[in-house]
Amino acid sequence: MSVWFKAAGGKRGLLPEIDKHIPAKFGRYFEPFCGGAAVYFHLVETGRSGLVAHLNDANPHMMAAYAAVQNRLPELLRHLRAHEAHYYSGGRDVTDRTKKRREAYYYGVRSADPDPVKKQAEAAARFLFLNRAGFNGLYRVNKSGKFNVPHGKWKTPPTFCDEGTLTAASRALLGVTLTCEDFVKALKHVRRGDFVYADPPYIPVSATADFTTYTADGFSGEDQIRLRDEALRLKKLGVRVLLSNRDHPIVRKLYARGFEMRRIEARRYINSRSDRRGPAGEVLIW
Known about the structure:
This protein folds into two domains: 12-58 and 181-285, Rossmann fold, CATH 3.40.50.150; 66-166, Adenine-specific Methyltransferase, domain 2, CATH 1.10.1020.10. Mean pLDDT is 89; it is low at 207-214 and 270-278. A seven-stranded mixed beta sheet has the order 3-2-1-4-5-7-6, sandwiched between helices. It is built from ten helices and seven strands. By secondary structure, the protein is α/β, with parallel strands linked by helices.
């Protein structure tokens, strides 16, 4: 299935390596930092029939998009078609005039902030529109929780209403439990035999490479420790646990006891500079 939205740190390029660590049999599937949920969709596409899944993320706008794709697809498609019509009201040709018109519309949508609970489909359409029209697919908010990614630049104007891909995603999400809460709370009902894949916001390599600002609260060093402790707890319960993180000395020290890990090379699909979207060191931890 095609990617229905861009997610920083998305795992579609690492699926062959991740797949080596997915147990042949397991109970339920939990993903507490789902992002684009590449691993979940991979499980569906590879024929995991009867899969019982729980997807969670702390980003309420992202999870509104999941919920709308799952349960309110016709309404979501109507909103997306409206965004596409307004954005390309001056035609699809790239001229100075159409650039200004599109930028004005983008920033107007960006400044709006529909409630992801009360106006789920509208908020979901805004999330998907900004994801496609914003710079490089980033989702970033300031300390006040306001989305602050600038308008994007591209050679080929984006499509905002990919009905085929969204319909396929809706089918794949049928029956999935969706939550928007802290990862520890999202994992409280995990039991022996279940499989958990955790792909948290990574420890940044520099201040300018910090993608943890996809929620206003961010993801701190203390959160990384809480995740390590939760993974240990689950392993002791007999849960199969797999984590991803940056190959960084802090990460290696954090998981030095009670875990195994191996380095893999991951391609960066989202970066402010195209020449930095190449291979980068990550680790799989279990």
